[in-house]
Batch of 4 targets.
Target 1
Amino acid sequence: MDKEQLVERYFENQLSEEEHKILQNYLDTDASFAEEFAFQKNVKQAITLNERAELKQKLQSFESPKSTKNWILKWSVAASIAVVLVAGYWFMNQSPDTTELYDEYYQSYPNVVAPTVRGENKTDLKSQAFYEYDSGNYQKAYELFSQLYATDKDDYALFYSSLSLIELNKPQEAITLMDQFDLNKNNGFTPYFKWYKALSYLKAGEKEKATELLQSLSENQNPQQEQAQKLLKELK
């Protein structure tokens, strides 16, 4: 039985003892599900308040019209406020969508190593790799940059092969590839490796790992410091 069915049966008071245990396990191990469940439960309680107000109206039908109207109004307002407060709490405490933040901050990194010049027809592996990258043929670019890195172990080849995987919507594979780069290395590629690795973590839904890298970028002066600081604020 999936989570949605469990929640439905819970609110219908139809859960067996075993199903209660399964639901509790989900609540203990899945923070997002627990927040969603708490929100639904609070909304149900607010709705119940409103239903009680209607019942109260019927039970007090023999009271004066004025007093009955005031009573119903009070309960309706209370129920409405409860729904608004619960909904507001829910939205204020929602974790930002990491995929949306990835889409907001991700930009393709340009070829700054060996720009393709129109009219030139170089056949060496490096030129061919960057030609495919500049042309948007990222699968071919990845294959060629991988060959370059296997041969020469140059950081640029590892970087652009990783970028090619990101462009191919393969963030987890890109992360695995970037793991080969020493992030403590002091060279021009380091901040960009950190930045694109952090974005790949966001795409993969690994917020804590992304935050760790962004924190590192935000603490020291580098080309990605300002962007890292902005993104960190949105993640909090």
Target 2
Amino acid sequence: MNKITQLFNIQYPIIQAGMVWVSGYKLASAVSNAGGLGLIGAGSMYPEVLREHIQKCKKATSKSFGVNIPLLYPNIDEIIKIVIEEGVKIVFTSAGNPKTWTPILKENGITVVHVVSSALFAIKAQAAGVDAVVAEGFEAGGHNGREESTTFTLIPMVKEQIEIPLIAAGGIATGQGMLAAIALGADGVQVGSRFAASHESSAHDNFKSLIVSVKEGGTQLTLKEITPVRLIKNKFYQDVQELYKKCPSQEELKTLLGRARAKKGMFEGDLEQGELEIGQVAGIIHEIKSAAEIVAEMVQEYEKTRIAIHNNPIQ
């Protein structure tokens, strides 16, 4: 057992990211049943919808699962209350200050993990009392840090600075990627894009089909003046780039973004006007598979690659 499998009481140190519009109870329970840690993505759920997903997840798996909570969520008090009432044991927090809610969650027996994009934020999260951190490189899909540190550089820099367990995220979709992250100092990995293109993902089939067709260079980090986000280069993305030519204000960018674009794209399947969040690693995702197949493949690839490296020393 390593630090992450012990911390979460899971078989493999593979965590499925709690992505908006993608990570419902079906995906979370499927990953947990396969030996990883499934996360319900609270960021796209009204409070009572989240309660329903937690209750369904408890029925669908007897194994560990958690909830990802963006701390900037408008109904954060209610969300935290529901998580505590429903007896959730693991919470991943992101997009906000971990100092605010970590003590309350831990007082209720909840294991807390915070997502960071830099060594500085990792140090602050450790000081706030979290049990582990996810260090996410800018290859990742969705909302991202402003530092643009890649996973390969970020993991060893964070490892130098913290004592608590470290989970690597951003650009990891294979067993080889998992082995590389662990070689750099991670204790486990968080995987988003690969699970977004799974059968159990709640993403629209249009979006899943697009993910497996994305090629190298098909995504871009943009909208840094508001909140940096990595998007597929669709019609909406091109509209953003056209607006940038006019040196827009934050308000003009916010007006173009509007409301519910991510839902329109990822959940409702509008590939032209929707916000389509996916990581650079989509370029090596070529097939929609079940969550169980993805976990099993990653574990097999990890072992195969580890043995191959051991049998092929550089001298």
Target 3
Amino acid sequence: MSKESTKDAEPTTTVEAGAAAADAIPAVDPRLLVREQGFAGYLTEFKRKIKGGELGSIPVVTGLIVIWTIFEITTGRFLDPANLSNIAQYIVGPGLIATGIVFVLLLGEIDLSVGSIAGLTSAVTSVLAIKQGVNEGLAVIIGLAAAAVIGSIQGFFFARVGVPAFVVTLAGFLGWSGLQLQVLGNTLSLNNISDGIVYKLNNYYFSDIAAAYGLATVAVAGYAFSQWREHSRRKAVDLPHRPISELTLRTAVVAVLAFAAAWTLNQQDGLPLGLTVFIGVVVLASFVLRRTNYGRQVFAVGGGVEAARRAGINVVWIRISVFTISGFLGGLGGLFIASQSGVADSNLGGGDTLMLVIAAAVIGGTSLFGGRGTPWSALLGILVIQSIMTGLYMEGSSSKAVQSMITGAVLLAAVVLDSVSRKSQKAAGRA
């Protein structure tokens, strides 16, 4: 071909390429189109997630259903409203501590001091209110403030000084336990003030049935509004969005669960104050992590410290703040445990408290490797653990050894599942 013919061909080729580019349909991630393919699309998406290791809360929810089914069959009264109401009470204190642990685990770190912080907070509060005559409300505020400060101090040594979190919090576990004994002094046990603030934390119920049903209504309405708002925002910018039929189905499922829980609680004493606080903390923490810039930064630091630093995130601040949250929720959980037991003593926060709250967060779906998990993991995980303990007790197997062995086996299964899930995600190119 001559040079002239080549030159003549070039404009034609360029024009054709430009036209083809203009007519081409932009590549779209097929995962974004499943909502437009009906049930078959959702089934395809579900299979993709399973193969890719994106299991979410499926294992823990499935496990919880199996546990409840087995104990109901063997005892015949596990799902009685009275028993479920008791479980709802027992999960509050450890659940609040586990929620704080979730924040730390999202960074891929660990906090071994939360049990000691829980015990110290209850000790400080009780000593101030009972021995020193300080107003109990003020004593509670001082105790929680002390817990937050302790978390900040530990976070400072970890984030600024560079001491490993394991070492810092292990030192805290020992040091704060000793300070707890020092604060209590010769009186190693202090009873809660009768009908006082700490006493009511775990013993007050909203007996009017409107309270439980009202909370269920607010929860369903809030969920429906958030789903509709996301639908509207994505539709406004022409992004793939869930159809109204799916939003309706999701809201219906949440409504069934919420009102079933409200009905169950109303068969007994009503809505517990402690459960209300716990759910409120979980919802608030979930909102912070999923809907705020701070939450996205926490996940970013957990996903990779250097990448987060290069993106302009203040890694030091994020780390200190996370340990502050863990300390505060550890102290709050300690007050609820003191309310449940009726006393603030030298044993509060000791024993297997630390192991149980860490196990709850991990069993619920929070990764030990960082970057994956939600506050709902704490709720689901502690519900699994408490269900096992309660079920074994009802069967007559109240042995601590049996409970510990079963809980340990469940924890190991959760960690193995997490590890396998991460490997599957890496193989699928999504880790």
Target 4
Amino acid sequence: MAKVIGVGGIFFLCENVDATKDWYTRVLGIEASEYGISFSHGEAAKVFPKGAMTIFAPFKAGSDYFKPSEHDVMFNLMVDDLDGILKIAEAAGAEQVQPLEDHDYGRFAWLMDPDGRKVELWQPKEPAAST
């Protein structure tokens, strides 16, 4: 049976495309091309063979989860070293907008991009081996 197997892209509007690409490169170390920013699913699977996944989750209108952003979308970016990414981000002038969280499925931190969009950084944790 035919089925959707993943997210092929996320497309969004911004005030200044070059400034937005520059922020993601400078603050998060993501390299942009003429097509935007791309990620290898294989790379994520190498680092987190069982924990890497893409979540496609609608939230009820009025949810506070995207705050302090006023946008109706938030990006969740998977990282291999949350502490390392945060050091790079802070050196580039980005500040966390809420305290770090640590859960059994991963660690999380949040920044705001230049368009006022909330960016959630997620370092997955591999599920514990079942005995």
